[in-house]
Amino acid sequence: MKELTPKKIVDELNRYIIGQEKAKKAVAVALRNRYRRSLLPADLIDEFTPKNIILVGPTGVGKTEIARRMAKLIRAPFIKVEATKFTEVGYVGRDVESMVRDLVNTSIRNVQQEKMKEVYSEAEKNVNKIIVDILVPSKKIKETLKTPFDLFMKPNQPATTTPVELDSEKEQSKKEKREALSKELEAGLLEDRIIEIEVDDDGSKTIGVMQGMNSDSMSFNMNDIFGDILPQKKKKKNVSIADARRILINQEAQKLIDMDQVQEIGIREAEQNGIIFIDEIDKIIGNGNNQGPDVSREGVQRDILPIVEGSTVNTKYGPVKTDYILFIGAGAFHVSKIADMIPELQGRFPISVQLESLTEADFNEILTQTENSVIKQYQELIRTEAVNLIFEEDAIKHIAKIAFLQNEEEENIGARRLHTVMEKLLEEISFYASDYEQEEFIINKDYVERIFNIADKRDNYQKYLL
């Protein structure tokens, strides 16, 4: 984080998101302030709380993508929730505290994955030994001992077990075979071979109890309660060695990490660096009526308020403070406005940023300059059929124009319109790609116009214009 200055954060976001400079700067400053807070004297750290943000703009202009990319950039725990799921007509829906529990679960899972990466090499060595034992079982040596039953009932009788003479040649041959298999495993020569392994049976481990509308806080894990009293159930499964390695490495890595430490770090990360993105926050704002759904919406605002303001939420891992979690709200605000929120909640979102609708030029940049552009995605997808898609520059400009016009004429869904346009454009190509003999398929402006019949549509529109 020390190297991520606000300018560098914006530069990183520019790789995936076109435009919306004001929103990028707002979140970049919010992230940098977190780092600055960590450098404050101990007596001042608790005094500094995040300045929550509301992003205002139509769908598909990058609100969610900005929040998601910035969280990924700093590897912070991040969840997205829909505000509408907390309310239904006439009554409050899902428990609003569930967003904090989801954040903690995500944080702990992230820490667990990082810790498992640290012990991956050791886990892989253990798994190779396990696979070799499955392929060439080691012979157990029986000892000449009396059983407890024999010692009690027949103290003077000789042992009932028979000594097993080890055949040194067979043991040597088995040892050589195990060594040869170990080398073949390391070289990846046995990946398709089917073996039988024992895996953890996670079925029926979690029991959910319904109490009113809140099932999240009443869901618990039997192992969390009884610990090692209940043995872990196992089941046998026939899989390839490649799949067995993946499954067993995961199990072995989990055995090698300290889950108590993982949970402790996970909770701390959620509290200090967590980001909760509340989408469609405008949908919980009423129109001033004191009855019907508006009552429910205002009730949700009042339920969210203490969480955003700073409170303690009980989770199955322990209490979690929300004082330093960064909340980012987002909504179109077509009908309502931020001023319609209850005053207390407005005060907890001091920063609001207006995002602009996408222009034709923005669509063209999204198609050509972003690292995860739709064109690159479809090129890679069709390349799996040994067909190379080539888009001419004029064709890309025309695709951007079509997306822009469709947003103007129909519902404005922002950059998501590019997906609908590309699906229609490549529908026939995708269908017949596996049958093509040529290695290249060139998409030019004429092909785009033929698919969408732009000229015909323009002529039809003219007769409605005065």
Automatic annotation (TrEMBL):
Molecular-function GO term, any one: peptidase activity
InterPro entries, alphabetized: AAA+_ATPase, ATP-dep_Clp_protease_ClpX, ATPase_AAA_core, Clp_ATPase_C, HslU, P-loop_NTPase
Keywords: ATP-binding, Chaperone, Hydrolase, Nucleotide-binding, Protease
Positions of the UniProt region annotated as Disordered: 154-178
GO biological process, one term: proteolysis
Keyword presence, Ribonucleoprotein: no
Start and end residues of each AAA+ ATPase domain: 49-359
Keyword Chaperone: yes
Ranges where the Clp ATPase C-terminal domain occurs: 358-452
Signal peptide: none
SUPFAM superfamilies linked to this entry: P-loop containing nucleoside triphosphate hydrolases (SSF52540)
Biased composition, class Basic and acidic residues, residue ranges: 167-178
PANTHER family assigned: ATP-DEPENDENT CLP PROTEASE ATP-BINDING SUBUNIT CLPX-LIKE, MITOCHONDRIAL-RELATED, ATP-DEPENDENT PROTEASE ATPASE SUBUNIT HSLU
Family: Belongs to the ClpX chaperone family. HslU subfamily.
NCBIfam families assigned to the protein according to its UniProt record, in alphabetical order: hslU, PRK05201.1
Protein name: ATP-dependent protease ATPase subunit HslU
Organism expressing this protein natively: Acetobacterium tundrae
